[in-house]
Amino acid sequence: MDKKYKIFIEKMQKIADLTAAENIMNWDQETYMPAKGAQFRSQQVGTLAGIVQDMKTSVDLEKAAKNVLESAQEESEEYINASIFLRDFERDKKLPTDFVSEFAQVKSAAALVWQKAKEEDDFKLFLPHLEKIIEMTRKMANLIDPKGDAYDVLVDLYEPEMRSEQLDKVFTDLKEGLIPMIEKIQEVENVNDEVLFSEYDQATQRIVIKKIVSDLGFDFERGRIDLVEHPFCTTFSPDDVRITTRIKPNDLTFGLWSSIHESGHAMYEQGIPSEQYGLPLGDSVGMGVHESQSRLWENNVCRSRGFIAGYLPYLKDHFPDQLKNMTTDDFYYAVNAVKPWPIRIEADELTYHLHIIIRYEIERDLIGGKIEAQDTAAIWRKKYKEYLGIDIASDAEGVLQDVHWSCGYIGYFPTYSLGSLYASQYYAAATSQIQNLENDIESGNFDSLLSWLRENIHVHGRRYNSEELCSRVTGEGLNPQLFIDYAKEKYGAIYDLTL
To answer: In angstroms, rounded to a whole number, what is the distance separating the alpha carbons of residues 109 and 103?
Structure first.
């Protein structure tokens, strides 16, 4: 290995080590940390974030990367890693270390208050923290690009090179394609999904979840599952990826499908080349592609008729009383029922996008200064009534339902819809290239699909941006119409409608 590149790797991996330590602290805060650990945990996270920021923006690391570029062959992994780092460096150096450390402490404290506010249905308790996060997020965007659109700057952190102008078009296409479809479905007799909301033993659910996500390809020797309020996935390295879930005693699908969703994220992380640890080629493309991996497994695979046909007998073995009369068709229809619902992570595959559009519109206007944090609860209720016809009963199921704003993840929400769109395109490409994929899924063999995802998506790290990767894998860039066509075919058959 070239000496200049070795120096660069050593510096980058030290940053990765400390970032992993910070991630472990955040994971522990959500899972096992005692309640009184909050004060010092926020301080500890802030200290680590400041150290990492100093290291990421050091002159020595910049010099090491430039030294690599001087001798590396263009398009080599050395050249790509150094050049992507230098792009990040130009952004990161604009953020003072004191600001980064303070913001990390603010977010850590806010996440704990958010959880209490949600439990107590008390938006006023969380409001001062949300106001602080909005203030600091606006400041961060201004530091990075004082002349640019602040919300675009934030979106770029999660979906590089995506802009709100593009998002507006995508979401307009989705609204025009999905809202009439959803309205037409609501006019007919709804699918019966009552069986999903019987009493299901939670310990048995955990057994089922572990079996199914293991079958899909989640490697338990390199990961684990724990219980939390709001499911998430985090990674410390490709060999230590954690997922969390929430299991409800009267809802079979929530724990299972949220676990499948998070295992999709985790399998992506486990598929990134470990030899690129700490480097851009050892990182994910962006959250749109990351979400495509979770949504693909959650919806395209595990809500397919083949998957239901294959796993319904297994589910009946574990829940014989609840599912004894279920046919494959009945269960397939039940897990794909379309009905407006107040909670995003419990939403069906179609109305889900309206949940995302609501959040996108609110946070875009928050950052743009058109509304303030104190307005969000009322605006949330208004938009849910307008888009989904739902009366929001409480702030706990309204503006407080998601953890993201408490963590400072503003600009993240649009990637959920982008992920579903990419997933539809990727799955169509995989189906056309993998012989008998549907049969493999019904028989519980997911190796061919996971291998295809590893070879076509996971292995590339950040070599391509999301649009480039999509074009490379599917032959065209992001195309919302493909998702709409897929939805019309699938749900037209389920509801016996011409959509």
So the answer is: 10
Q: Which ranges of 272-318 does DSSP label H, i.e. alpha helix?
A: 287-295, 305-318
- Catalytic residue at 22? no
Q: Give ∠ CA 299-352-386 in degrees, rounded to 5.
A: 160
Which residues, at least 6 apart from 318, have a Cβ–Cβ distance to it below 8 Å? 204, 207, 208
* Neighbour tally for 66: CB within 10 Å: 15
Q: Are strands 240-245 and 223-227 parallel, antiparallel or unpaired?
A: parallel
pTM for this model (two decimals):
0.94
Spacing of C-alpha 102 from chain mean position: 25
User: If phi over 0 gives left and psi between -120 and 50 gives alpha, with beta otherwise, what is residue 217?
Assistant: left
Which tokens in the block code for residue 13? Answer: 């991996």
pLDDT in tens, 329-366: 999 999 999 999 999 999 999 999 999 999 999 999 99
CA distances (Å), origin 76, targets 80, 265, 275, 490: 6, 27, 15, 43
CB 236 within 8 A of CB 222: no
DSSP state of 456: H
Cα separation of 117 and 109, whole Å? 12
E strand or H helix at 325: none
- Torsion angle in degrees (nearest 10) through CA of 271, 242, 292, 311: 90
62 backbone dihedrals φ, ψ, rounded to 5°: -60, -45
62, pLDDT greater than 90: yes
Q: Give the tens place of pLDDT for each residue, 280-304.
A: 999 999 999 999 999 999 999 999 9
Q: One of 78, 262, 269, 442 is an active-site residue; which one? A: 262
